Amino acid sequence: xxxxxxxxxxxxxxxxxxxxxxxxxxxxxxxxxxxxxxxxxxxxxxxxxxxxxxxxxxxxxxxxxxxxxxxxxxxxxxxxxxxxxxxxxxxxxxxxxxxxxxxxxxxxxxxxxxxxxxxxxxxxxxxxxxxxxxxxxxxxxxxxxxxxxxxxxxxxxxxxxxxxxxxxxxxxxxxxxxxxxxxxxxxxxxxxxxxxxxxxxxxxxxxxxxxxxxxxxxxxxxxxxxxxxxxxxxxxxxxxxxxxxxxxxxxxxxxxxxxxxxxxxxxxxxxxxxxxxxxxxxxxxxxxxxxxxxxxxxxxxxxxxxxxxxxxxxxxxxxxxxxxxxxxxxxxxxxx
Length: 336
Prior knowledge:
Layout: H1 3-11, E1 13-16, E2 19-22, E3 55-56, E4 65-66, H2 67-70, H3 89-92, E5 94-95, E6 99-100, H4 102-106, H5 124-136, H6 147-158, H7 161-173, E7 180-185, E8 187-189, E9 191-194, E10 197-200, E11 208-210, E12 216-219, H8 222-227, E13 235-240, H9 243-253, H10 262-265, H11 283-294, H12 301-310, H13 315-327, E14 330-331, E15 334-335
Parallel strand pairs: 7-13
Antiparallel strand pairs: 1-2, 3-4, 5-6, 8-11, 9-10, 12-13, 14-15
């Protein structure tokens, strides 16, 4: 056997996403839940330049913006100002250089995107606690290359207590209406990562591929979401066939390996006191948090309470739980 092969076998190296990873070190975060923009391939032509001054519009809005305006994290693009209360300064503009406007990543309506968090309707005390844990280093991500988490840490460290309280009160006041459609599937569109999220491939690279044991969450209107940051453009999440039913068993009974979620998160999974809601939230985000807590990347007051709950969960369990919780639609009568 050639020496290089012996070395690879001995070290337990695996090739994953273009990177060599020691199999004997910490478990590799699933790339479908921890998307990172890949490095450019050697010799690849540069991406076509975008016209930053061209004016764009989105359905249902009378606003017109250039890409320069849309990409300004210190003057958050707000296509639908009639859909939310006036944003506090820290949400709408932030404070240069380190405190980006909270609404840039989490959107003015608080719904966020799969690569960050849906914060609309979360308890204000919970939001304040999470920012404090990002700031202290208790909470971080399992994938150090994931830009949104790193930006959240930077923002938390730069924000004042007054700014955090203002943002928390604003997002907590927003009603939560799910905008992720959960679909069980065996095959899904081929995708690429753009701007920290999965989008369908186009042209000759388009097509379908097996879903396997993963969740694939992507925008329904990729250009509206990724290029124009339209906070009215929804998402779709493909989950394995049968995962919702399996998740229901784990969520409602514990399945002999965890605690029924309703004990802390409420019978309808819409939250209880300072404990956050789960119903209708991004499934890839949910898996990311379960993984982070289980593997020690996320610590702190509420995370520490979750550690024994997630200790015995497999990745398939996490997928099933997230598929079920994301499929629940909270309303005045509970979750249906």
